[in-house]
Amino acid sequence: MRILVVNPNTSGSMTDRIRRELEAVKGRETELTVVNPTAGPAAIESAEDEALAIPPMLDLIREAAPRHDAVIIACFSDPGLDEARALVSIPVVGIEESSLSAAARFGRFTILTPRASRVPAKIEHVRRLGLGGRLASVRPLEMGVLEIDADPEGAAARVLEVGGVAVRDDDAEVLVLGCAGLAGHAAAVSRALGVPVVDPNAVALATAETLAERRLRRRGV
User: Fold this and answer.
1) Which one of 74, 99, 103, 190 is CB 3.0 to 4.6 Å from 180, fit for a cystine?
2) Phi and psi for 45 in degrees, rounded to 5?
3) Within 10 A of 150 (CB to CB), how many other CB atoms are there?
4) Tens of pLDDT, residues 131-143
Protein backbone atom coordinates (compact mmCIF):
# COMPACT_ATOMS: atom_id res chain seq x y z
CA MET A 1 0.00 0.00 0.00
CA ARG A 2 1.13 3.56 -0.67
CA ILE A 3 0.59 6.27 1.91
CA LEU A 4 1.14 9.99 1.38
CA VAL A 5 2.29 11.91 4.47
CA VAL A 6 2.08 15.70 4.20
CA ASN A 7 3.84 17.96 6.67
CA PRO A 8 1.85 21.18 6.04
CA ASN A 9 4.71 23.52 6.97
CA THR A 10 7.75 24.19 4.78
CA SER A 11 10.38 22.79 7.17
CA GLY A 12 12.40 20.20 5.29
CA SER A 13 14.22 19.11 8.45
CA MET A 14 10.95 18.38 10.23
CA THR A 15 9.73 16.46 7.20
CA ASP A 16 12.94 14.41 7.29
CA ARG A 17 12.42 13.65 11.00
CA ILE A 18 8.85 12.53 10.39
CA ARG A 19 10.02 10.36 7.51
CA ARG A 20 12.75 8.66 9.57
CA GLU A 21 10.43 7.90 12.47
CA LEU A 22 7.63 6.55 10.28
CA GLU A 23 9.99 4.43 8.18
CA ALA A 24 11.01 2.72 11.43
CA VAL A 25 7.44 1.70 12.36
CA LYS A 26 5.65 1.21 9.04
CA GLY A 27 4.37 -2.15 7.90
CA ARG A 28 6.45 -4.26 5.51
CA GLU A 29 4.01 -3.70 2.66
CA THR A 30 3.78 0.06 3.18
CA GLU A 31 5.47 2.54 0.87
CA LEU A 32 5.70 6.07 2.27
CA THR A 33 5.86 9.37 0.43
CA VAL A 34 6.64 12.12 2.96
CA VAL A 35 6.51 15.66 1.62
CA ASN A 36 6.00 19.29 2.51
CA PRO A 37 4.86 22.28 0.43
CA THR A 38 7.37 24.85 -0.76
CA ALA A 39 5.04 27.76 0.02
CA GLY A 40 3.43 28.72 3.32
CA PRO A 41 4.60 29.09 6.92
CA ALA A 42 7.79 27.45 8.21
CA ALA A 43 5.88 26.45 11.35
CA ILE A 44 2.19 26.26 12.26
CA GLU A 45 1.64 27.95 15.61
CA SER A 46 -1.55 29.97 15.12
CA ALA A 47 -4.87 30.03 13.30
CA GLU A 48 -3.29 32.40 10.78
CA ASP A 49 -0.49 29.91 10.10
CA GLU A 50 -3.08 27.19 9.56
CA ALA A 51 -5.00 29.33 7.06
CA LEU A 52 -1.81 30.06 5.10
CA ALA A 53 -0.73 26.40 5.11
CA ILE A 54 -3.97 24.86 3.88
CA PRO A 55 -4.03 25.90 0.17
CA PRO A 56 -0.52 24.63 -0.75
CA MET A 57 -1.11 21.48 1.29
CA LEU A 58 -4.34 20.80 -0.59
CA ASP A 59 -2.52 21.32 -3.89
CA LEU A 60 -0.03 18.61 -2.89
CA ILE A 61 -2.80 16.23 -1.88
CA ARG A 62 -4.82 16.88 -5.03
CA GLU A 63 -1.83 16.16 -7.26
CA ALA A 64 -0.49 13.08 -5.41
CA ALA A 65 -3.64 11.37 -4.11
CA PRO A 66 -4.34 9.35 -7.30
CA ARG A 67 -1.06 7.46 -6.74
CA HIS A 68 -1.74 6.63 -3.08
CA ASP A 69 -4.13 4.62 -0.92
CA ALA A 70 -4.36 7.00 2.06
CA VAL A 71 -3.18 10.44 3.20
CA ILE A 72 -1.86 11.61 6.57
CA ILE A 73 -1.84 15.29 7.53
CA ALA A 74 1.17 15.51 9.87
CA CYS A 75 0.34 18.57 11.95
CA PHE A 76 -1.29 18.37 15.36
CA SER A 77 -3.96 20.95 14.59
CA ASP A 78 -5.19 18.85 11.63
CA PRO A 79 -5.32 21.90 9.31
CA GLY A 80 -7.51 21.43 6.27
CA LEU A 81 -8.64 17.96 7.31
CA ASP A 82 -12.26 18.40 6.27
CA GLU A 83 -11.25 20.14 3.03
CA ALA A 84 -8.84 17.34 2.15
CA ARG A 85 -11.47 14.70 2.83
CA ALA A 86 -13.87 16.49 0.51
CA LEU A 87 -11.19 16.63 -2.18
CA VAL A 88 -10.25 12.94 -2.51
CA SER A 89 -11.91 9.54 -2.27
CA ILE A 90 -9.11 7.81 -0.30
CA PRO A 91 -8.94 8.01 3.52
CA VAL A 92 -7.40 11.17 4.99
CA VAL A 93 -6.12 10.82 8.56
CA GLY A 94 -5.30 13.73 10.86
CA ILE A 95 -2.66 13.04 13.49
CA GLU A 96 -4.55 14.99 16.16
CA GLU A 97 -7.92 13.32 15.63
CA SER A 98 -6.48 9.80 15.48
CA SER A 99 -4.11 10.18 18.43
CA LEU A 100 -6.67 11.76 20.76
CA SER A 101 -9.13 8.99 19.98
CA ALA A 102 -6.42 6.44 20.77
CA ALA A 103 -5.37 8.18 23.98
CA ALA A 104 -8.94 8.25 25.27
CA ARG A 105 -8.98 4.45 25.22
CA PHE A 106 -6.22 4.41 27.86
CA GLY A 107 -7.87 6.86 30.26
CA ARG A 108 -7.45 10.52 31.18
CA PHE A 109 -4.93 12.17 28.88
CA THR A 110 -2.77 15.27 28.82
CA ILE A 111 -1.76 16.98 25.58
CA LEU A 112 1.76 18.41 25.57
CA THR A 113 1.53 21.37 23.18
CA PRO A 114 4.35 23.67 22.09
CA ARG A 115 3.02 27.04 23.27
CA ALA A 116 0.55 28.29 25.90
CA SER A 117 -1.21 30.30 23.20
CA ARG A 118 -2.45 27.02 21.68
CA VAL A 119 -3.99 25.64 24.86
CA PRO A 120 -7.54 27.01 24.26
CA ALA A 121 -7.58 25.62 20.72
CA LYS A 122 -6.50 22.18 21.94
CA ILE A 123 -9.24 22.15 24.56
CA GLU A 124 -11.80 23.11 21.92
CA HIS A 125 -10.58 20.37 19.58
CA VAL A 126 -10.95 17.78 22.35
CA ARG A 127 -14.50 18.93 23.06
CA ARG A 128 -15.35 18.90 19.35
CA LEU A 129 -14.30 15.25 19.21
CA GLY A 130 -16.54 14.44 22.17
CA LEU A 131 -13.59 13.54 24.42
CA GLY A 132 -13.84 16.31 27.00
CA GLY A 133 -14.57 13.85 29.79
CA ARG A 134 -11.20 12.18 29.18
CA LEU A 135 -9.09 15.35 29.16
CA ALA A 136 -6.84 15.73 32.20
CA SER A 137 -5.06 18.87 30.98
CA VAL A 138 -3.26 20.64 28.18
CA ARG A 139 0.22 21.70 29.22
CA PRO A 140 2.59 23.86 27.15
CA LEU A 141 6.23 22.97 26.66
CA GLU A 142 7.01 26.65 25.98
CA MET A 143 9.10 25.73 22.96
CA GLY A 144 8.28 26.85 19.45
CA VAL A 145 7.79 24.29 16.68
CA LEU A 146 11.06 25.22 14.97
CA GLU A 147 12.86 25.15 18.32
CA ILE A 148 11.55 21.64 18.94
CA ASP A 149 12.81 20.61 15.53
CA ALA A 150 16.23 22.22 16.00
CA ASP A 151 16.82 20.96 19.55
CA PRO A 152 15.47 17.41 19.90
CA GLU A 153 17.40 16.78 23.13
CA GLY A 154 15.99 19.93 24.70
CA ALA A 155 12.52 19.00 23.50
CA ALA A 156 12.84 15.51 24.99
CA ALA A 157 13.87 17.01 28.33
CA ARG A 158 10.89 19.37 28.33
CA VAL A 159 8.49 16.54 27.43
CA LEU A 160 9.83 14.53 30.33
CA GLU A 161 9.62 17.47 32.75
CA VAL A 162 6.18 18.74 31.76
CA GLY A 163 4.80 15.24 31.29
CA GLY A 164 5.94 14.36 34.79
CA VAL A 165 4.05 17.34 36.18
CA ALA A 166 0.92 16.25 34.30
CA VAL A 167 1.12 12.72 35.71
CA ARG A 168 1.75 13.96 39.24
CA ASP A 169 -0.53 17.01 39.45
CA ASP A 170 -3.23 16.37 36.84
CA ASP A 171 -3.63 12.61 37.35
CA ALA A 172 -2.91 12.06 33.67
CA GLU A 173 -2.96 8.39 32.76
CA VAL A 174 -1.60 8.89 29.24
CA LEU A 175 0.37 11.65 27.52
CA VAL A 176 -0.09 12.83 23.94
CA LEU A 177 2.81 14.45 22.09
CA GLY A 178 1.02 17.46 20.62
CA CYS A 179 3.38 18.26 17.75
CA ALA A 180 4.51 16.26 14.73
CA GLY A 181 8.06 17.46 15.43
CA LEU A 182 8.10 15.48 18.70
CA ALA A 183 8.26 12.23 16.75
CA GLY A 184 10.55 9.66 18.29
CA HIS A 185 10.33 10.70 21.95
CA ALA A 186 7.38 8.57 23.06
CA ALA A 187 9.14 5.35 24.03
CA ALA A 188 11.81 6.92 26.26
CA VAL A 189 9.33 9.19 28.05
CA SER A 190 6.93 6.29 28.59
CA ARG A 191 9.69 4.21 30.18
CA ALA A 192 10.76 7.09 32.42
CA LEU A 193 7.27 8.06 33.63
CA GLY A 194 5.56 4.68 33.59
CA VAL A 195 2.53 5.81 31.53
CA PRO A 196 1.60 5.34 27.87
CA VAL A 197 2.84 8.14 25.61
CA VAL A 198 1.10 8.54 22.25
CA ASP A 199 3.19 9.54 19.24
CA PRO A 200 0.55 11.02 16.91
CA ASN A 201 2.54 10.31 13.75
CA ALA A 202 2.83 6.60 14.52
CA VAL A 203 -0.82 6.28 15.53
CA ALA A 204 -1.96 8.09 12.38
CA LEU A 205 0.18 5.77 10.27
CA ALA A 206 -1.31 2.67 11.87
CA THR A 207 -4.79 4.10 11.29
CA ALA A 208 -4.03 4.93 7.66
CA GLU A 209 -2.55 1.48 7.04
CA THR A 210 -5.68 -0.18 8.44
CA LEU A 211 -8.01 1.92 6.30
CA ALA A 212 -5.87 1.52 3.18
CA GLU A 213 -5.65 -2.25 3.64
CA ARG A 214 -9.42 -2.42 3.58
CA ARG A 215 -9.51 -0.28 0.44
CA LEU A 216 -12.13 2.06 1.86
CA ARG A 217 -13.19 4.88 -0.44
CA ARG A 218 -15.58 7.80 -0.27
CA ARG A 219 -18.25 7.88 -2.96
CA GLY A 220 -18.96 10.88 -5.13
CA VAL A 221 -15.42 12.34 -5.19
Assistant:
1) 74
2) -130, 10
3) 15
4) 999 999 999 999 9
